[in-house]
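ARCHIVE CARD
Drawer: 12
Card no.: 0347
Subject: one protein chain, sequence and derived structure
Cross-reference: see card 0346
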Amino acid sequence: MRIPQRAAKKIEIRTLPSRATAAKMNENSAKLRVQFGCGLSAPETWRNFDASPTLRFERLPVVGRLYTKNAGRFPGNVEYGDIVKGLPLVRESCAAVYASHVLEHLSLGDFRIALGNTFAVLAPGCRFRLVVPGLAILARQYLDSGDAAAAQTLMRAIAKPRSQGPARFSEIVAWQ
């Protein structure tokens, strides 16, 4: 079966680079550090990704500049990227990957896909640091509480949006 030239180009764009091409690209990006689910905290020396619809909307010409849902706007160095769908990165090109309070929001299936995509972009022997809530601590506080509203307190703590403050990046920016 012969594939029309137009279709062949589409297939070619979606394929991963060859091992030789990827190796050359990895040489140039051996120090690439990536964060996904960055929210409003995006270190300048990292490639930062977020899958927020708000980010996409803020990037629209004219209309996006007028949009003021959040108190702050996404920094200019944040790119749209969804770890479940795969980030636009070469395989084994990252020296470090960081995710803070992202993976716990995914279904089990999407979580597994996200981990697979994360380890696919990590260079051999490099690091993946992730932060997830300490559910055991919250559960212990719930069980030890004599408060009649303990269940509501637990649910608010679990559903609480993550902090967007820059303090959580003091360690990651210094991480070399």
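Annotation on reverse: Residues 22-133+164-174 form a domain with the Rossmann fold fold (CATH 3.40.50.150). The radius of gyration is 20 Å.
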